[in-house]
Amino acid sequence: MDWIGTILENIREMECPCCGARLKSCAVRGITAEPNALVVRLACSVCGENSVAVVKREEKKAVAAPITRDDVLDAHDFLRSWRGTVNEVISPPTA
Fold first, then answer.
1. Which residue, among 76, 66, 69, 3, has the nearest Cα to 33 in the 3D structure?
2. Which residues contact 10 (CB under 8 A, 6 or more apart)?
3. How far is Cα 50 from Cα 26, in angstroms, rounded to an integer?
4. Which residue did the predictor score with more confidence, 35 or 95?
5. How many CA atoms, within 13 angstroms, populate the side-chain half-sphere of residue 80?
6. pLDDT for 34-54, tens place per residue?
7. d(CA 16, CA 47)
C-alpha cells in the first residue's frame, strides 16, 4: 500500500500552524496506523515546528492473485503456438 503517497496528497495544501508555510515538503513520520486512518507527525521545513495530522486511508482495492509457476507454464505453452503480433496478445479485447 502506498501510504506515503496518500499522506502527501492529503497534506499538499495544509499550512504549518506556527508559520503558515505550506507543508508539501515537510518531513513526515508515522505515529500509528488505524484501520481507516494514519496518525503522522509533520515537521515544517521552514520553521521546524512539529504538528500532528490524521490522514484518512483509502479503501483497499482488490489485488490480483500472484502469478504461479503453472501460470508461467500455461503462458509459455500459449506463446509457443502463437502466430500473431505482440500487440494482439497484450491489447484488451474489443467489445
1. 3
2. 53, 55, 56
3. 10
4. 35
5. 6
6. 777 878 888 888 898 888 888
7. 9
Question: Residue 21 corresponds to which amino acid?
Answer: A
Task: Please give the helix or strand (H or E) that residue 69 lies within, else none.
Answer: helix 69-81
| Angle formed at CA 33 by CA 43 and CA 5, multiple of 5 degrees | 60
Give the span between the Cα atoms of 48 and 38, in whole angstroms. Answer: 21
The Cα–Cα gap between 40 and 50 comes to 10
pLDDT score of 27: 80
pLDDT band at 90 (very low <50, low <70, confident <90, very high): confident
Q: List, in order of start, the domains of the chain with CATH numbers.
A: 3-56 (2.20.25)
